[in-house]
Amino acid sequence: MLFNSFAFLVFLPAFMLCYWATSGRTRLWVMLVFSIGFYAWWDWRFVFLLLFSSVVDFSLGILLENEQGDAIRRRLIVLSVAVNLGFLGFFKYFNFFADSAARLSRSMGLHVTYDALKIVLPVGISFYVFKTMSYTIDVYRRTEKAERDLLKFTTFVVFFPELVAGPIVRASRMLPQLQRDHAFDYERMVSGLTLVLSGYVRKVAIADSIAPLVDIRFAHPEAHSSVSLLLGVYLYAFQIYCDFSGYSNIAIGLARILGFDFGINFDRPYFSRGFSEFWSRWHISLSSWLRDYLYIPLGGSRGGAWLTYRNLMLTMLLGGLWHGANWTFVAWGALHGLYLVAQRMMGGRVRLPAVVQVFVVFNLTCFAWIFFRSPSFDVAWQVISGIAHYHGSLLDIDNRWKILKCVVLIGGLLAFEWSGGLLARRNDRNGRRAESPPLHRNGWRLAFCAACVWVILIFGTFSGLNFIYFQF
Amino acid sequence: MSDVRKGLIWIAAFVLVVLAGDRLFAWLAQRVLVRSQFRYSRLYRGGNDAEIVILGDSRGVNSFYAPAIEKLTGRRAFNLSYNSLSPEIAEALLLDHLDRNAKPKIVILEFTSAIVSGEVLTELRPYAGLSPRLMALYTRKHPYAARAGRVFHLLPLNSGFYIEALHYMRRDDQDWIMRSALPPEARTAPAAIWRFKPFPQNIAALGRIADALRRRGIEGRFVIAPYYQKHFMNMPQFLGLVEHAVDPDEHVRIYNYADAIDDPGAFADTVHLNETGSLILLKMLQRDGVFAAGGMAGPGARF
Questions:
Q1: What sign has the CA pseudo-torsion B12, B15, B18, B23?
Q2: Distance between CA A402 and CA A428 in Å, rounded?
Q3: How far is A211 from chain B (nearest CA, A)?
Q4: B130 occurs within a structural domain
Q5: Chain B residues within 8 A of A404 when measuring between CB atoms
Q6: What is the pLDDT of residue B291?
Q7: Domain of residue B276, CATH code
Q8: Is residue B243 assigned to a domain?
Q9: Considering only CB atoms, which chain A residues are within 8 Å of B164?
């Protein structure tokens, strides 16, 4: 089920009604049943995979906690990681690796053919696998207590707001919140609704309006001028940002209304002045997951410069691959790895004005987005060479009205984020609350929420487009 | 006050503010819309005194260059064509035009638009609030969106046409014409096979348009503009269908210029004339008396 579907408009009030009408274990059952219904709306068959994954990690968590012998505990954690990555590997990467191996064999002169299996990718698998995997790893490290209530654990895994496209809410954050009932809280309802509506603006008004403009440019890059392609790349940067941050805002806002705190997943990333800052602001739940369960276990920055560079590259390459079974995602990850390494190598030696730093980081990020968006290296190369071999002008661009609309909306978003950041910093200095002021005042929040609805009505695209991160 | 009570009051206030703002902004936006010089804003604002009104799809836009018609005939021309504008929509627009503006002498309709399904209707929805005819068409084709539009008045203004209307706030939009030339590969390509597949509702609309014109004493010109090197598989059948619906007489005539121009320099692509081609066609129309009113039009020269 999509957040931007008619079905969800029916689902949500029904869920809210049942949720607030119940308490204790009955409420947990409500959360579980509705979440399963939410997932089954897409494909009921994969509900069993989801439940199986939950039961396996629930059982392994208890075994890991009970077991005292290091060797057996190590075997158990290897089993948990193998099961989780096995699911991910089969459903997401089997065809990719088999096809890549066949190509490699052919390039070495061996006659290997491979017919791709028709494997359906279970929606959200990358998210819930990372969630359950981090749980067993935390229990193995003894930084997290094993959950002994299967109902609570399964509810944690399948809770619908963040099930299919994150944020990746770890057990250490979510399980304690499931230990008690959350009473209806007026403040949480208003601030949650503010987030939900701002998420819908990002998705329905901005990302979905941009989508067709980007699609035609990446489908036929040869038919577009340099300026048009460059515009397509910049637009994509905002499409993916608004699509994903929109989903995150809706998920976090819904959870907040229900009494849960998911943290934040995006924090004005395009205002970053460096790439480490960018990754502390972009898809925060994934970047912190990769930091805690990959980069630091690899050694982090503890083993000297070259080992740090290796660890950064490995983390970003795997982070790229996490996004999709295509070498273009690996290239995207590699580019970000290189950016991080280059930034570390330069240290603080290059001093540039803040606005130049933001400009450079944004443009290099956009360059990496070309690989992320392109279905193949050929297309990526066509886009890059099309931009580099300057031809055409602004006047050659089709759909100028639609582009103008998107530019106005993006301008509004950036102005909102910039002023929000400015005010938050000022409030921080004055020791007041750091939440985007003046949105902690009731009247302003009411006006903001109403404005969100008006923007959706006048600029929204109601074609029910999927969220981009569903495919990951 | 309990949190639940406060929450309910907040939601009620929120709904009220949303609806009030929706009405206020929609009202203001509608006022802005009808002040534009965009063709449909001009139509619904009223007060036009064009003697020649043109309707059609993109072929209507690019074949009948209004400034050239005015220069050639000395009569004021108003082109209401738009990409994918079907005769069904053209009928609603024409009748609205006749209700709100001075009666034209001649209405020209590029009727190969009978093969388009009329996707432009969704873009025309900002004007549906001003036209029961457009609203009826829109409600029939998009019942849920029409219903939602009755709840939220801003929703029908969510259209590319609204942005276009803002662009043409102070500028005339009657100068649309393609100036590019047919690409070399298209000039030498063999003639494409072309089969007309008109929608029955569009053919019926052509008949109703002809009747409406007769009733109001307006001359009707149903024209096929030129194509570049097409091999028409069913031209006689298509023309027969239209003739049956329109029932031509001395006031309502049908003209076929489908293969009247074979100069590749006159086309922007194989179905659209460019400015040069439009001028050539307009001179042909004048030669054939298409612009002559009062029953003085030449016979359907090519039909």
A1: negative
A2: 39
A3: 15
A4: no
A5: 163
A6: 87
A7: 3.40.50.1110
A8: yes
A9: 401
User: Residue B154: which of A436, A284, A459 has the closest Cα?
Assistant: A459
Cα separations (Å) of B135 from A23, B94, B147, B153, B203? 49, 14, 11, 13, 21
- B10–A402 CB contact, under 8 Å: no
User: Which residue in this structure is represented by tokens 């100069």?
Assistant: B263
> What ipTM score was computed for the predicted complex, to two decimals?
0.80
Token digits of residue B11: 């939601």
- A291: DSSP letter: I
Smallest CA-to-CA distance from A42 within A121, A141, A138 is with: A121
Cα–Cα dist A127/A121, whole Å: 12
Domain contains B17: no
- Report the gap between the CA of A199 and the closest CA in chain B (Å): 17
Give the orientation angle of helix A400-429 with respect to helix A442-459, to 10 degrees: 170
Beta bridge partners of B52: B77, B106
Torsion, CA A161, CA A162, CA A165, CA A171, rounded to 10: -170
| Chain B residue numbers touching A453 (CB-CB < 8 A) | 18, 22
Q: Please classify residue B249 by burial: count the beta carbons closer than 10 Å to its beta carbon, then call 0-12 exposed, 13-18 middle and 19+ buried.
A: exposed
Asked if A442 is an interface residue toward chain B (Cβ–Cβ < 8 A), one would say yes
Measured between alpha carbons, how far is A55 from A49 in angstroms, rounded to an integer?
A: 10
Bridge partners of B108, per DSSP, are B54, B221
Please name every residue paired with B221 in a beta bridge, in sequence order, or none if there are none.
Answer: B108, B253
Active site residue A323: yes
CA A231 to mean position of chain CA atoms:
24
* Rounded distance between C-alpha atoms, residue B5 and residue B226, angstroms: 69
Are residues B163 and A185, on separate chains, in Cβ contact within 8 Å? no
Identify the three-state secondary structure at position A131. Answer: helix
Tell me the whole-structure pTM to 2 decimals: 0.83
**Chain A within 8 Å of B4 (Cβ-Cβ)?**
yes
- A35 in Cβ contact with A155 (< 8 Å): yes
- Tokens 């509900």 locate to A47
d(CA B34, CA A66): 75
Residue A200: its H or E element: helix A186-200
Catalytic residue among A111, A323, A336, A389: A323
Amino acid identity at B105? K
Tell me what the mean pLDDT of segment A420-446 comes to: 65
> Residue for token digits 């940067």?
A237
User: Is residue B229 predicted with pLDDT exceeding 90?
Assistant: no
Q: List the structure tokens of B36.
A: 């534009």
Would the CB atoms of A457 and B22 count as touching at under 8 Å? yes
Contacts of B154 in chain A (CB under 8 A): 454, 457-458
Whether chain A has a CB inside 8 Å of the CB on B95: the answer is no
Q: Is residue B257 one of the residues assigned to a domain?
A: yes
Task: Check if B185 contacts A (Cβ < 8 Å).
Answer: no
Q: Cβ–Cβ contacts within 10 Å for residue A425, how many?
A: 11
Mean pLDDT for chain B?
A: 90
Gap between the Cα atoms of B82 and A441, Å rounded: 48
Residue of chain A nearest B126, judged by CA positions: A458
Query: Tokens 């690989």 identify what position?
Result: A371
Q: Is A190 near chain B, with CB under 8 Å?
A: yes
pLDDT tens-digit readout, A310-367: 999 999 999 998 888 889 999 999 999 999 999 998 877 778 888 999 999 999 999 9
Q: How far is B21 from B137, CA to CA, in rounded Å?
A: 28
Q: How many domains does chain B fold into?
A: 1
Closest-CA residue of A relative to B145 is: A462
Q: Tell me which residue range forms the domain holding B98.
A: 47-120+175-287
Considering only alpha carbons, which residue of chain B is nearest residue A461? B158
